[in-house]
């Protein structure tokens, strides 16, 4: 299994080092985070779809963001959890590895585009409230979301193709819990320096291409808020952006450490920790960030709970 492979048909994921007891603890911890992530995002999607008070562009985008978050974690985390229960290394076919990497990168790209769109939406709401419903109409919102999804899936076709076009002849063991691109480059016997550099530039394009509109939007938002004379008015205006701003800070900071590096073949321990931040911790925090810090959503959620209580009592 550890000999050279000139035509690899499957890989083996090393997962997490340590004893069986440690694996059981990690399984319980990560399963809890994954469960919270899925249930929290499903709750957001259902409430946004059902309650008419949340039929606005901001919550329309939030619903799609929740779908992306849930799908991104589902592409990788269940496989990681299954690996923690196995006694040895986990086998994954070349096709499954390719599909997993493609879905993970595509969904992540769409998520960054959508975060930038949400920043622009908040900019229009705060800086140009009288024209908000005209600019962010249902037709515009629908097309923006479609473009976000389509762009993410089209943009990642070549990077994934270039990765799996390499010859994997050194080994077929990936020192990770999912098909990480950096670890795949380590197994290649081709000269992949140019390919890695191009992928680095593409990662920079996605991250900073979506981060720049976000920074510009929040610059105008903060400038507008500071012109409001009353402190209560300033807080009310900023509260509409606080949850998105928090999500942006956490999401971009963790992904910058993971993806924007010239050398893809980073240390395995570094990649594992950074990947856990992106795939497990951040998606679990986002439902709380978007609900607990949002007065309107809390009001709708309380009303929904009261309605469910009345139905059960009846």
TrEMBL record:
Putative odorant or sperm cell receptor. The chain crosses the membrane at residues 25-50, 59-81, 101-120, 141-161, 197-221, 242-260, 272-292. Belongs to the G-protein coupled receptor 1 family. This is Olfactory receptor. SUPFAM superfamilies: Family A G protein-coupled receptor-like. The gene is LOC113891845. It comes from Bos indicus x Bos taurus. GO terms for cellular component: plasma membrane. InterPro entries: GPCR_Rhodpsn (IPR000276), GPCR_Rhodpsn_7TM (IPR017452), Olfact_rcpt (IPR000725), Olfact_rcpt_6C-like (IPR047132). It holds the Pfam family 7tm_4.
